[in-house]
Amino acid sequence: QVQLVESGGGSVQAGGSLRLSCGGSGYTDNMYTMGWFRQAPGKEREGVAVIDSDGITKYADSVKGRFTIARDNANLYLQMSSLKPEDTAMYYCAARAGRLAWWAKLIAGNFAYWGQGTQVTVSS
Q: Dihedrals φ, ψ of 87, to 5°?
């Protein structure tokens, strides 16, 4: 049974940094594509960053140059810098078996396994 548990969320002022972590269990680390998604109140869940088992990454345009995704065995990380109020959301870790086409990487519906989320709040 795949389990994903996020940590590292919190409240920070604009311009600050946070590092999110996701601990995974119940699967072989090299079988999965993993990613971070976020959902703000009243909005759809959106892809933030994805990394596949070969280390290839893709970022949403809104976070390029500010966020960095990394993985280490079954764990996933998101280093967030220069945070903005519009980054405020619940952040979710997600995983799926196998790779995705480039165009499909940031689509939430393509991921089968999800964590419970960790809240990130950025104040101005």
A: -85, -5
Q: Tens digits of per-residue pLDDT, 4-35?
A: 999 999 999 999 999 999 998 887 555 679 99
CA 10 → CA 14, 17, 19, 96, distances in Å?
Answer: 13, 10, 10, 26
The tokens of 50 are what?
Answer: 């994805």
CB 69 within 8 A of CB 59: yes
Nearest Cα residue to 122 out of 80, 79, 92, 88 = 88
75-80 and 67-72 as β-strands: parallel, antiparallel, unpaired?
antiparallel
How far apart CA 62 and CA 92 sit, in angstroms, is 17
